[in-house]
Write a structure and sequence with these properties.
257 residues; alpha+beta; Alpha-Beta Plaits; five-stranded antiparallel beta sheet; 42% helix
Length: 257
């Protein structure tokens, strides 16, 4: 009886400069628990791992993305590999789920996109991505019951007016925060605010900002976030600093299979 052969694809995490010592990267196991290695071409190297195509081809990936536990485990592995590489070298991260059917396919991608990827590596060199989220506490509704239907309607109208004014002010504060932090960064991006089920917080998110910051200015940026947060306490706004992250928001380098 012949053993069944499992078709293998090459999962690509990101691109780093060529000529790196693979042993120096100290990579953890990655997506699918596969070891991570380098595929070189055109003066660049792709961080890759062998994965079964039955799980990572178009149909398999579509099926597995419906499995939340699987997705969370593999997404953590993807991020873990990139975070580890980032401690050693500049990199251009690719989105989750980029798979090529052969090493030659990976090399062709590097060759075809050498100019774009090299420029991105140079732009990202010496910089890190930091995230800042702004949350606002919603006002507690008045608990006293209305004495009459008219009073109830007036109070509802007043509550809507106050909420609209509060929203306008909160959104204005978020814009101020983003502009002040963007002035300290090489590049900045305001992403759509996350819903509570994604942010893990009940408070409404006003700002979901990403900032590309020179590594030597990381502490100054963190201090600026802390000072801004102190200014906004009275407005019920709280700032949350995260990172450093692989520069997902500034790589501009997705890839097609």
């Amino acid at each position: 009886m012949t053993a069944t052969t499992v078709a293998t694809g090459w999962y690509v995490y990101g691109v780093v400069p060529g000529g790196l010592d693979p042993g120096a990267l100290e990579q953890p196991s990655g997506v699918g628990a596969a070891p991570v290695r380098l595929v070189d071409a055109a003066g660049l190297a792709a961080l890759v791992g062998a994965v079964p195509l039955e799980d990572f081809d178009e149909a398999g990936l579509r099926r597995n993305l419906e499995d939340r536990a699987w997705l969370e485990e593999q997404a953590r592995a993807h991020d873990r590999v990139l975070a580890s590489a980032l401690t050693h070298t500049v990199l251009v991260p690719l989105r989750f789920g980029v798979v090529y059917r052969s090493e030659d396919g990976v090399r062709r991608m590097l060759e075809l996109r050498a100019g774009e990827l090299s420029a991105a590596l140079e732009r990202l060199r010496g910089r890190v991505e930091l995230g800042v989220k702004a949350f606002v506490r919603e006002a507690e509704p008045a608990s006293r019951q209305a004495a009459s239907g008219r009073e109830y309607l007036l109070r509802k109208q007043r509550a809507r007016q106050l909420a609209a004014t509060a929203d306008e002010r909160a959104n204005g504060l978020a814009l101020v925060v983003h502009e002040r932090l963007a002035s300290l960064a090489a590049e900045a991006r305001a992403n759509p605010p996350q819903r509570p089920e994604l942010s893990g917080r009940r408070e409404r998110m006003l700002l979901n900002g990403a900032y590309l910051v020179a590594a030597e200015r990381e502490q100054a940026f963190a201090d600026a976030v802390e000072n801004l947060g102190a200014e906004l306490v009275g407005d019920g706004v709280e700032l949350e600093l995260t990172g450093p992250w692989p520069p997902y928001n500034f790589a501009d380098a997705g890839a097609d299979e």
